[in-house]
Specification:
The complex is a heterodimer.
Chain A (H helix, E strand, L loop, with lengths): L2 H21 L5 H39 L3 H19 L14 H5 L8 H12 L7 H6 L7 H8 L4 H7 L1 H28 L16 H13 L1 H14 L18 H18 L5 H7 L3 H19 L5 H4 L3 H27 L13
Helix pairs in contact in A: 2-3, 2-9, 2-10, 3-7, 3-12, 7-9, 8-9, 11-16, 12-14, 13-14, 14-16
Chain B lengths: L1 E2 L1 H7 L12 H6 L4 E7 L5 E7 L4 E6 L4 E6 L5 E6 L5 E6 L4 E7 L4 E9 L5 E8 L4 E8 L5 E11 L1 E6 L5 E6 L21 E6 L5 E6 L7 E8 L5 E7 L10 E4 L6 E3 L3 H6 L6 E4 L5 E6 L4 E6 L4 E6 L3 E6 L5 E6 L4 E5 L4 E5 L8 E9 L1
Parallel strand pairs in B: 1-28
Antiparallel strand pairs in B: 2-3, 2-29, 3-4, 5-6, 6-7, 7-8, 9-10, 10-11, 11-12, 13-14, 14-15, 15-16, 17-18, 18-19, 19-20, 21-22, 22-23, 23-24, 25-26, 26-27, 27-28
Classes of the chains: A mainly alpha, B mainly beta.
């Protein structure tokens, strides 16, 4: 190649590079702000409201159960529990803000419980039956293993819950006390969000929790992207086991037979956050940035995972060891990996770094 | 609440201004306190940045790649920015003349692990390195007075040596042998998690002789001993990184005094969970009584007594870099989101420090106080 040609081709390459780097404009602060506002107002807050509502219902029905322990009130309490659990599964992905305070997230649900702490500590408390452990103050310092949904599940989804509750009024009183504690936690979380949401209302701030709307988006997008790995690793792969037989008791909420529904709620909530918030959402933002193909792929993947989950038999704990179920779950876990990697890709394209030391430390 | 840059000066205490004017050693490199850290810019480039007590950016030096820890020379205005695994460079920078003095290259077949220290007399630069062919850990000693030529190297007594410090006697090195075998050909992949055997090694820096080595029990063999600090009494604080099952609830901090067994300590269960099995940095305060440990994956900093008692924790998003200020129980914290915080363990007051920085800076793993 002659020198002239070489210079010409270098120039051309340079022009192409310059062109392609300006083709997609940087996301502007107004877009981040719009995303934050939409997701907070139409996704986060309504989901916390629902959680607090279901928590209140659980408190009411457990009170009624203790007043008159019969099959009707028990069933009602079990239904309220499932409703609250489902509501929790739809907001579990938000791990920042008021839910972090006082380790509330762990308080509501300490899981997985590898060392079976809930069982050990709850049994001890129920055997001791000390009235002091029913006081709200007790729960301020009590172990996280005994004050959340898993503890309630153990009380109302045992072999013969009605008989146990009728014979041991303290069990019911403790159930009521946990429900009361959960109600306080979920109501306080909701109330504190009324203040905390202000952190998502500005373009930039010197004094606020976030320096810019973009920085505030990082917390929201972490909630969008990171929980997928947890669903895959803890809710699917861990129960399936690496080599040995699948272990149904490693499924989340196998006692109340809700493991599959939990995952469905998780995925639906993430899907809603991604493209279901009508005012504005990540999918729309990506489209505005010209990433239509990737945005479509992510949408398709969400739908396909939802379809995959809907085809699984319930309760999952009963069918986990079936070869076909095993295969379906592995397939879903792969789809979740692909979805996760596409969402990570979208973060790169939007130049949003979800973590520096936290993601690539040494 | 943030605090103004002017207040930052007051916060850092008057003690470091008094007295130092008369010290010839400090005169040689100026008498002010500066803070140095490796960073990544919004464009993905790597730089060494120096911040003054007013929070103003004083110097930025472009690095060839990502680095990890910045070592300050005890007398001269020199900093060593050490390449992160598996990089092969250390940039020696004069921050007064604002010049790159030298780019040290590791020997053929070796690479750095992100940590180095200057000897207290300022004569030697001592780094942890990987002998790639065998995976054996090395301690390499370079002569500051002779263009940083290697004058000796010896075994670190383990695989994957990471942070090292000098014991108060000024001669014995304490080395965190992380135990994890990696080879640049396989990127940063960990090759021996099932057999890893981390250790804390005390080695004579002059002879290279191993004086004492402590290991963890079999149950704890996947706790990588990664970062450490030592106080004036020779108490070693250790920050761990767990490589085992995601659900295990392992101690993530440890303490050691020579001649004793390692004491593993655990924060209360929810805090220990929230530390996400990973600690990124550990530093004693000025008094040597209080210890800060960062857990960037959990956005948490935990505080401990030198004896190993848990004190409290604070949330700090992507917080990792830690350094003591000249005031007892006070620390500066740097974060991946480009922020500095001042925290006083005794008053439990956390305050943000305003920095004059270009947008989008990410502070890397470690923060150094150059005073």
């Amino acid at each position: 190649m002659s020198l002239k040609h070489l210079i010409k081709s270098i120039l051309l390459a340079y022009m192409l590079l310059t062109y392609s780097s300006v083709a997609i404009a940087e996301v502007n602060p107004e877009q981040w702000l719009k995303l934050n506002q939409a997701v907070i107002n139409d996704h986060v807050l309504p989901n916390y409201l629902k959680l607090a509502k279901q928590s209140a219902e659980l408190k009411t029905s457990s009170t009624q159960l203790c007043q008159a322990p019969n099959s009707v009130t028990l069933e009602q309490t079990q239904t309220s529990f499932i409703n609250m659990l489902n509501a929790w599964q739809r907001i579990q992905h938000v791990q920042f803000g008021p839910i972090e305070l006082l380790m509330r997230s762990y308080t509501i649900q300490f899981w997985p419980d590898k060392k079976n702490l809930t069982s050990k500590q709850l049994n001890l408390l129920l055997t001791e039956a000390n009235p002091a452990t029913l006081a709200p103050e007790f729960f301020n310092t009590a172990s996280i293993a005994v004050k959340g949904l898993p503890a309630i599940e153990r009380i109302i989804f045992t072999d013969e819950p009605l008989k146990t509750l009728q014979e041991n009024p303290f069990h019911c009183q403790f159930l009521q006390a946990i429900s009361g504690h959960l109600l306080t936690q979920t109501e306080n979380t909701l109330a504190e969000w009324q203040t905390y949401k202000q952190e998502f209302e500005y373009l930039s701030s010197e004094e606020g929790n976030y320096e810019s709307a973009q920085e505030a988006s990082i917390d929201l997008m972490k909630a969008q992207v990171e929980p997928l790995e947890i669903i895959r690793d803890l809710k699917i792969l861990r129960p399936l086991g690496k080599t040995a037989k699948a272990k149904p008791r490693r499924l989340e909420n196998w006692r109340s037979k809700n493991a599959l529904q939990n995952m469905q709620h998780n995925i639906q909530a993430l899907h809603h956050m991604y493209s279901g918030v009508t005012a504005y959402n990540l999918s729309l933002l990506m489209r505005e940035q010209g990433e239509v193909g990737l945005a479509d792929d992510i949408e398709t993947q969400f739908k396909s995972i939802e379809t995959g989950l809907s085809k699984l038999p319930s309760p999952l704990s009963k069918h986990l060891q079936e070869a076909s179920v095993h295969k379906q779950l592995l397939h879903i876990s792969e789809q979740i990996s692909q979805l996760h990697s596409n969402l990570e890709k979208s973060m790169n394209m939007l130049e949003l770094q979800l973590g520096f030391n936290s993601r690539d430390g040494d | 609440m943030g605090i103004s840059r002017r207040n930052f000066t007051a916060l850092l205490g008057s003690s470091l201004l008094g007295g130092s004017l008369f010290s010839s050693t400090l005169l040689a490199r100026g008498n002010e306190t500066l803070f140095a850290s490796a960073s990544q810019t919004s464009r993905g480039l790597y730089e060494l940045l120096i911040i003054d007590q007013q929070g103003a950016l004083r110097f930025r030096h472009a690095l060839p790649a990502r680095s990890h820890h910045i070592a300050a020379h005890p007398q001269l205005p020199l900093l060593a920015a050490v390449g992160r695994r598996p990089e092969t460079f250390i940039d020696i920078v004069n921050y007064q003349s604002k010049q790159l003095i030298q780019r040290i290259q590791s020997r053929q077949g070796q690479h750095f692990y992100g940590h180095a220290i200057f000897s207290p007399d300022g004569r030697y630069l001592i780094s942890t390195e990987n002998q790639m062919s065998t995976g054996d850990g090395l301690i390499v000693v370079r002569d500051v007075h002779d263009n940083f030529n290697t004058i000796k190297q010896f075994s670190s007594a383990g695989i994957g040596p990471h942070e090292l410090k000098m014991m108060p006697n000024g001669r014995t090195l304490v080395i965190a042998n992380g135990g994890i075998h990696t080879h640049p050909k396989q990127g940063r992949e960990k090759l021996n998690l099932s057999t890893m055997q981390p250790s804390l090694a005390y080695i004579d820096s002059l002879s290279g002789k191993l004086q004492e080595q402590v290991f963890l029990t079999t149950e704890h063999h996947q706790l990588s001993i990664r970062h450490l600090d030592v106080n004036s009494q020779g108490r070693v604080g250790i920050a761990l990184q767990y490589q085992g099952d995601k659900l295990d609830d392992m101690p993530l901090v440890a303490f050691h005094s020579q001649g004793e067994a390692i004491r593993l300590v655990k924060a209360p269960t929810p805090i220990n969970h929230a530390m996400k099995q990973y600690c990124g940095s550990i530093r004693f305060d000025q008094s040597g009584e209080t210890v800060a440990v960062s857990s960037p994956r959990g956005d948490l900093i935990t505080f401990w007594t030198q004896n190993g008692d848990y004190l409290n924790s604070i949330k700090t998003t992507d917080g990792c870099g830690l350094t003591a200020t000249s005031t007892k129980s006070c620390f500066l914290i740097s974060t991946g989101r480009g922020r500095f915080y001042h925290y006083d363990v005794s008053t439990k007051l956390k305050r943000r420090i305003s920095l004059e920085l270009p947008k989008g800076i990410h502070w890397d793993n470690h923060l150094s106080n150059i005073s």
